[in-house]
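Protocol step 4 of 6: structure prediction from sequence.
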Amino acid sequence: MNTIIGIDLGTTNSVTAHLTQDGPMVIPNALGESLTPSVVGIDPDGKLLVGRAAKELQILHPDRCASVFKRHMGSDWTATLAGRTFNPEELSSLVLRSLREDAEAYLGEKVDRAVITVPAYFNDHQRKATLNAGKIAGLKVERIVNEPTAAAMAYGFHEGRKEKLWLVFDLGGGTFDASVVEVFEGVLEVKSSAGETFLGGEDFTRSLAARVLEAVGLSFERTELVAPRLVSRLMQQCEIAKCRLSREEATTIRVPSNDGDLGPDCRQITVTRAQLQEWTANTLARVELPIRRALGDAGIGWKDLDEVVLVGGATRMPAVVARVTQLFGKPPQCRLDPDEVVAWGAAVQAGLIACDRAVDDLVVTDVAPFTLGIGISKLFGSERRDGYFLPIIHRNTPFPSAALSRWPRWKPIRPRLSSRFTRARIAGSRITCCWASSCCREFRAARPVKPWRSASPMTSTACSRWKPPSWRHGTRRRT
């Protein structure tokens, strides 16, 4: 049987791993690197580039390259590269195909099965788009796993049966997730998850670039339109400076010309670690609300946690470590490589699917990240108002899960029934509903209809369907 690989399909970088007798191991790409940039480009000769080559091309030809497209999975966003239009699924499939080819070259066998990780706060559309990207890349996606859950599986695999209550703090290149995980007697139970899909290391780099441009009298948004090569090169310089400031107290950033060139006469801006922390403080403060939500849903306090585990490349920033220490009153732990740990966990999940003996005693449970329900109407006097949300499966309910809810028809005889299955994200006192799918059946119902809802590990709203009564020869028969 072919090896099932684990893939961490990241916003800025992607990693592939597989399970060996000695545990999960990263599969290097064709360049011998463990990280493959999630960048796709087309060079002037029309050749398709993925990874490091595309990232280098993006510096001088940003119009020919696409990156950070993971944030747009499941949406109508498109990118036009050299006259060709791509959607996020197609771009992601190109990255996945490159990872699959590298895995085949390294393992010496055909690879057509994979476990792919996604942010815990990905909705149904985004998860299905990831599944489609894998299918386009020639992969049978055996399981979609939440990234914090995968990281916890990697820690649970390496640390055995130690009973602990963790908070997995996953701050990657483009997304943030916080998950409360309990490990006991070979069971890894995710108690709650929360997050934000537009918060990550890319936002810190962008904030730094905006401040550098402001120091030379330029606006980031305007410069991005009139001089895209300048911004593209500057983003590269700011990314390097951000990593350097994790080790040093100060560094110098060179501001390129409008053509993206770094000549000997280019302007230079000195940036200190304290300045970077000040400029990114508002962005970093956005991690607190998801953490509070995850702890509240799990029913535990800040001091009840045994450890806070850091996952994701952005957690290497001293400002992130200081913020987490301030919030929890204890220093966070990072015993495994934060860039690779999610891929390791995906490889462990692949081992569970393949019934590998190394992980046969590990049981994993996860939760639905969103509240799932249906759209209903309410009667106020003689006026009917639509647009209300009826929860059926609440967020952070362990899955697989199913729920049944009764509700009456609006009129005694209705030849058609139409329902909208929804998910809701509760923010403060407002409820924002997003239509997940719609289902319509024509039948005659004499009794209240029972909408049935389920959540599965593959997608948060898969297996949604109606179970209406059926009619045959004038006699109602329940199905």
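Step 5 (inspection) to follow. The mean pLDDT is 84.
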